[in-house]
Amino acid sequence: MTTTVPAPAPAPAPTPTAGPLGGDRRTDALEKDIMRFRTVSGPDLTTRNDAYLAWQLDRQQADLWPYFRHYETPALTTRATVVSDTGVVTDGPNFGGQDYLSLTSHPAVRDAAHQALRDYGPLTAGSPALGGATPISRALEAGLAEALRTEHVALFPTGWASGFGTIRALMHRRDHILLDKLSHDSLRQGAAASGATVEFFRHLDNDAVRRHLSGIRANDTKNAVLVVTEGVFSMDSDTPHLAELLGVCREFGAQLMVDVAHDFGAMGEHGGGQPEVHGILGEVDFVVGAFSKTFATTGGFLATPSASAREFVRMFGGPQTFSSAITPVQTAVALAALGVVTSPEGARRRAAVAAVATRLRAGLTARGLEVMGDVVCPVVPVLIGDTPTGRTASGLIARAGLVAHLVEQPAVASDAARFRMQAMADHTDDDVDTAIDILDTCIREARRTTAR
């Protein structure tokens, strides 16, 4: 006979205690890496993360927790009001939103959203495979194909799904995937889920790609190799030499995938992103991207010259079958935004956001702050380095009236914390100069505080 002993009732979740933190709890809130909590053990999934929650609450109490704030005002305006879970109100220049060409308030974009809502309603009939498309979907696919100089486009409900779903569908266990070691999480997880052999190459190092490909092809000429990179790596504001990388792929019979989430629409003479800048627009095997940075909505896409690859992804890419399709409002907004992006007005907006980013980079550099990257793009990363200084500065910046996001583990290494400033075309010189003043003052104060 088996006897089951009832488990003890779970302890109540920890709650923050009154008064300032002291001793080890203050030190852990300031210094401990979040990834220390990532792997836990224990039989009860409802309680085994209590230590993590207690640490998070300590960080909130100590004004060291910058996450899950909410906007009290429209999120994608150049000035905004943001409120933290502990009630800290930040009101001032907004460099935390992703609206690179400031299209979320564009009259044509808003009119398109209203018209689609009236014509087709707020939701699709199902997944892309099961009736989830509308005439707007087809028009958007055609417009993207023209803008990217390719023939076949598939839409996804999110940008994350486009990278994940494409890799997961195309690659199999005998295949090989080479990813830049700083590739986005969606690309990494798609590679892991595919079952293919996955290797990482040094960031932006085309010679390393060549060595990897040479080693693979010395032993396997029968299976596919996919090299994965990004047009702009947003955490570092840098870009690979794409034309050279494409040549290396061709030399070894490998295919190239480029994620253009941060550059398509916002960079290039006609908005073609880094593939256009590097002269290979229309030549990349697989281009994936997101609408959420430049096109005023959520959603994503795959663009490819291969009809069979597109159809295979549409059938076997999980989000194409097992997730609801991008909505009529989303597709209409993206299509209207694409119309602006590819027009003379789009060129003016790209010049405007480049000017904002250039002023921001120059002003921060003049103050002695380290601005990362070698390409002028809407993302301006400001390197802090150690995590304690970054966390301290983040709390000070929020109270000083600047909306800006700290990036720490797991997004970057523990000794590479940074603020990721995101420029918009409609930011004014005063917005930029105020942001520079606040960043400079608060980072200096944070360094003095953590050095004590």
What is the arithmetic mean of pLDDT?
94
Q: β content, as a range?
A: 5-15%
Question: Which CATH top level class of the largest domain fits?
Answer: Alpha Beta
* Inertia-based shape: globular
H/E element sequence: HHEEEHHEHEHEHEHEHEEHHHHEEHEEH
CATH architecture of the largest domain: 3-Layer(aba) Sandwich
Side by side, the strands of the main sheet go: 4-10-9-8-7-5-6
**Strand segment count:** 14
Please write out the topology:
Elements lengths: L22 H9 L18 H12 L8 E2 L7 E5 L5 E5 L13 H14 L14 H13 L4 E5 L2 H12 L5 E5 L4 H10 L2 E5 L4 H14 L5 E6 L11 H10 L3 E5 L13 H5 L8 E5 L9 E5 L2 H10 L1 H5 L5 H14 L2 H23 L3 E2 L7 E7 L1 H14 L4 E3 L9 E6 L6 H23 L1
Parallel strand pairs: 5-6, 5-7, 7-8, 8-9
Antiparallel strand pairs: 1-2, 2-3, 4-10, 9-10, 11-12, 12-14, 13-14
Helix pairs in contact: 1-2, 3-12, 4-12, 5-6, 5-10, 7-8, 13-15, 14-15
Would you kindly provide a written description of the structure presented here, covering whatever features stand out?
- This protein has helices at 23-31, 50-61, 107-120, 135-147, 159-170, 185-194, 206-219, 242-251, 273-277, 307-316, 318-322, 328-341, 344-366, 387-400, 429-451, and strands spanning 70-71, 79-83, 89-93, 152-156, 176-180, 197-201, 225-230, 255-259, 286-290, 300-304, 370-371, 379-385, 405-407, 417-422.
- By secondary structure, it is of the alpha/beta class.
- The chain has two domains: 70-97 and 344-451, Aspartate Aminotransferase, domain 1, CATH 3.90.1150; 107-341, 3-Layer(aba) Sandwich (Aspartate Aminotransferase, domain 2).
- Strands 4-10-9-8-7-5-6 form a seven-stranded mixed β-sheet, sandwiched between helices. It has a four-stranded antiparallel β-sheet with strand order 11-12-14-13, with helices on one face. It has a three-stranded antiparallel β-sheet with strand order 1-2-3.
- Helix 4 runs parallel beside helix 12 and helix 13 (344-366) runs parallel beside helix 15.
- The longest helix is centred in the C-terminal third of the chain and has 23 residues, at 344-366.
